Amino acid sequence: MTVRTMQQPAALTSPAAFAAKVPLAARLSGACRTFAGRTILAGIDLEIPAGQFVSLLGASGSGKTTLLRLLSGLDAPDGGTILVPRTRTTVFQEPRLMPGWRVWRNVVVGLGQGDGTRARALAALTEVHLAERADEWPATLSGGEAQRVALARALVREPDLLLLDEPFAALDALTRERMQVLVKQLCRRHGVATLLVTHDVEEAILLADRILILREGRIHTDLDIRASGIAPASAADVARLKQRLVGTIMQGGAAP
Amino acid sequence: MAEPREIHLVAPLPIREQAGAKERGTLLRRSLVPLLLLLAWSGVTFSGVVSEQLLPSPLSLGRALLELWKDGLGTHLLVSLGRVAGGATIGVSLGLVLGLASGLWRLGEEGIDATMQMIRTIPFLALVPLFIVWFGVGEMPKTLLIAMACLAPMYLNTSAAVRNVDARLVEAMRSYGMNGLRLIARVIVPMAAPGILTDLAVRALEHALLPWRKTQALR
Known about the structure:
The structure holds 2 protein chains of 2 kinds.
Chain A: H1 15-20, E1 24-35, E2 38-49, E3 53-58, H2 64-72, E4 79-83, E5 88-91, H3 103-107, H4 118-127, H5 143-155, E6 161-165, H6 173-190, E7 193-197, H7 201-207, E8 210-215, E9 218-224, H8 235-251
Parallel strand pairs in A: 3-7, 3-8, 5-6, 6-7
Antiparallel strand pairs in A: 1-2, 1-4, 8-9
Helix pairs in contact in A: 4-5, 5-6, 7-8
Chain B: H1 19-23, H2 26-46, H3 58-70, H4 73-104, H5 106-121, H6 127-135, H7 139-163, H8 167-175, H9 180-215
Helix pairs in contact in B: 4-5, 4-7, 4-9, 5-7, 6-7, 7-9
């Protein structure tokens, strides 16, 4: 697969981040994407520092998934530049596991003979509490379990950038809550920069260090919610922030 | 508010019947109609209502079969089946390779598909005279005819099965570093296999047997 992305560690440092000595896990400038004459992304400028958890919000059709696909290299931009780390992995909305491979083989898919060992798969599965299911077939897993295998598959490579495309959307409420806690915990532990595409504003607030809102093909809002003054400290704070974000998303007029 | 109505409660009847009880005697029930037909056939022929010339009785049919067997039907059958196996192997392999190429790559599809769609419309029996002229009446034209007959169905189903492999799964596998021959051999072909194998059993081999019966004419 050809990915129009390169990595130059030295060049991947913004002036601001350079001052703070934090390397960047992604940098986009003027990234555009057009589908059949319709502009989805009109020019995205974005820097994600290493280790940051970013939630990307937006009305349906606002281009959230399109942006994620540009970062993962699954799609190429029509213009602008995109720089991402070499090791980046994606968790999709569906688990997308190979039905004919046992769980542990699915986890280490694509890793070479030397790296794709069972021990390594087991270590990753232990992190998502599924080590005892390593030898089963994907069809025997529940939706939440399959998605946890997909998460293990993404983390076993120790990526510098983790891309999550609405990974909880198809799960029931209780499972979703557990998955959110697990993802937050694992992303912190691995110190991996994460971009979470979601339509669930509360989920975005719960997990993120920073929230982006995509509107009219651009990043309309860029909110560092861990910064002082915004950080939600109570349920009332979360509710207030949620209301504000929902308002911003809806003003775009893209959604009913 | 209305007075609550009295509700009569019943034990729910299972919608699916018990499998165990039904399995017993299934062979008998399946063979019932063929046996009845055989009985009717015997009745009609033995009673003399229909002459032996128009409809031979099961008994005379059996006798004829025995005679043919003594004449060496078994060895003829083996020769024919060997011919089918040879032709089918050629046709199925070629159809598989071409179907994979067409299903996997756009260039393959552009290069092969139109030709195969044309070949598929040729009634293979129309080729019999040509093949006899070209290859004589030996083994060659018979084997080639059988190969020709399974080539098209095998090609069509293989390319369709490859194209129908879940594109999202393939995309995910690519994003996890599977590509080239490894992607084809370990992801695409295994996912397409059920479709290919169904066709192999149902259509390609059926098509292999069809001209085999016709090629008896070449003996």
